[in-house]
Amino acid sequence: PIDWGSLAGTMHFCMTVLTTIGYGHISPSSEAGRMFCVVYGFFGVPLTIAFVSLLGEVMKGVHDRATVAALRRVSRWGPDNTRRAIGAIFIGLGSLLFIFIPAVVFSVGEGWSYVDSLYYTFITLSTIGFGDFVTGRQRGVQYHHAYQGFKGFWLYSGLAFVALIFFAMTQSVNEAGKRMEKRMETR
């Protein structure tokens, strides 16, 4: 159960609602709490989506500027190979920052194995949110505010990164489908 008297518990509930992850382990228990949740979610979810989209645009801008700068410097590779290399570096660094390093933090902070923490980071950032692993649930453990702040920063930034990657993957699949369609039409 959530500790409504703690800042950490309340923040965790708020982030769970706003990100629509819904781990399934906490919910409002009173009618007043449910009505608050409806109003809070009604206004908060669209604002969170806008905020995460903005973060994604900032990340895409960094990626695009890095690609342009690299294309100027590494012209011998050719534009396609340079774009692929920059994309791979972007995905690698982002995965390190939002998946692999946070998994170490959660492994230490929650006492989970690294594999379980890695699983948690992906399940959370992909918004699958099964609820089998949820941070901040160890009885008797007082979580530091810096840890809670890290989780909030990680969650919103990581959601933007994963959404950007999923969007890019979807675009690539759609473009490949269009190319295949054109090839089929010319036969």
Automatic annotation (TrEMBL):
Source taxon at top rank: Eukaryota
Keyword Transferase: no
One Pfam family matching this protein: Ion_trans_2
Gene Ontology CC entries for this record: membrane
Matching Gene3D superfamilies: 1.10.287.70
Major site of localization recorded for this protein: membrane
Localization of this protein: Membrane
Keyword Transmembrane: yes
Record domain Potassium channel: where: 7-59, 98-171
Transmembrane segments: 6-24, 36-55, 85-106, 118-134, 154-174
InterPro entries listed in its UniProt record: 2pore_dom_K_chnl, K_chnl_dom
Alphabetized GO MF terms: potassium channel activity
Entry similarity comment: Belongs to the two pore domain potassium channel (TC 1.A.1.8) family.
Protein name: Potassium channel domain-containing protein
